[in-house]
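Now for our target.
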Amino acid sequence: MKKQDIIIIAVLFALLMAWPFFYKRWIEPMVAPPVAVRMPTNAAAGSKADIAPLPKASEQAPIKEIVKKAVPEPEPVAAIEEKRTVSDVPEQMVTITNSGTAIVLSSRGGGIVSAEFYNYRASVAKNSGPLVLSFSNMSALAYSGLGGLSAADAFSVISSGGTSLVMEASGAHGLKLIRTIELNDVNQIMVNDLFTNTGSQACSLPKHAVQLGLMQLPAADYRMSGMDYLGIDVLAASGGEGVIHWAGKLAKLFKKARDEEDSPFLPKSIVKQEDIPVDWVAVKNKFFTQILVPEGGAAGYRLMAERVTVAGEDQNHALAPKSADVRGVAAAAVMPEKTLNAGESYCQAFKLYLGPKKFSILRTLGLHQEDVMEFGMWSPVCKFLLVVLNLTYDYIPNYGVAIIVLTILIRIIFWPLTHKSTESMKRMQELQPLMTALKAKHKDNPRKMQEETMALYRKHKINPVSGCLPMLIQIPVFIALFIVLRSAIELRFAPFLWISDLSAPERLFAEILPIPLNILPIFMAATQAWQQTLMPAPDPNQQKMMLFFMPVMMLVMFYMMPSALVLYWSANQVIVIVQQLIQKNKKASVPAPVKN
């Protein structure tokens, strides 16, 4: 490697490492922290309101029209609700529980306003108390588009206790609703809504929606987590396109809404409705999810998203961001219109899973609900690795140790390929003098030199790509591990040695140092450099270049990765070094052949 190349790489690396300090010192103060999404209020009552009824398919407007009608400036995403006066009846909170969760429901709208998880801490601090997900800004399971039966309307509690609850409410035109809720042991909430027409004439149950609770980014992590932290998923009904993941598309919807409005600025929120049959609708963050499954499916769905705003952007439009960083998401399942004759009843049933994104639970719920994990094309490998990881943890109750054991198992599986690759590279190194001679002999005839080189490989039975084969085969395993380890609920706040949370970077002395200290990536880069010195290389100059380039590249790539992934790669490097040292010592102990 040339001296100037080394200088350029060193400068780029220094700039990259200095960026967090620059961002924290000058950029971060300009960005407003996420705030609670407020509901639009009635001028007189000053209270929450209901989601407006969905338009018919023939009346659907482009997204800019939906945004204009649903979210008049300056109100945020939750302003998709029509302005209604909240009932004067005092609000009553009712709690239903199972062994690990407490679900709090409100008599206002009959929806879920919070969920407390006894087995999951709120923060990495061991005395932080249980995690609470709040949906007070947009309650889960509340209706929208049903006069007298929506989120702002009063329900009466008929009975409650333990894991069950029964409420009732009266709507327009003599429509009565009795809601029965039951919480099971896996955090799935069974809902049976019995609508009865108590009037003397037929009445219409208009097109309406059942909403999921609003989920937002945590204040401490939203910049680091970015778009991947929040998501909206839907499963298209049989014959459809399968699970649709909206997380990576939300930023584009903001740009689309801006372009359709012919505005230079991104809207603060977007609302999009799709009239396609779906089996379920889900809203999720990195570790927890809500999955709503209407019995018989839904006629469509609605998604909502709000972006991070910059302090002062309303007064100075130059401060407005050019791309959207989503900080809040919500969704709703759209139910079709239904006509009830006088005295007729109709039961509408739902199942709502509200809990951790834990594969062992989600796979038992059916309808591919485990796909909210977003394993994608690597799903078989991801599932296998996660099962092995948890099985190891059952015997060795530390996920750091479990990751090391998993790494050893993977190395054992790939040992034949790795050994063959190492031997092939050694043989290529032995041919280096002959290769040098061929280059000198045919330096003016590249084609002839290539032919002679391939003939040399064939003569000595060497495959020139065999050295890369083990790495190529391991790429799917590495990608699958990255997917599993970045969002596995099992690793949330899981400790290992000095690491307090394997699902996040170490970030030691983050309040003192301009760049948080992450020891494991530095150790990994050091093992990478050591491993490069032990690897036989056909070209010494190439080995020198890789000795410098690879460790630096890996350090930059992994420095802010979840500690679990860095631990895997570090353990992998240590095992490779041990293997190479054993092979080297074994070769050195073999006596040289006696020459006659």
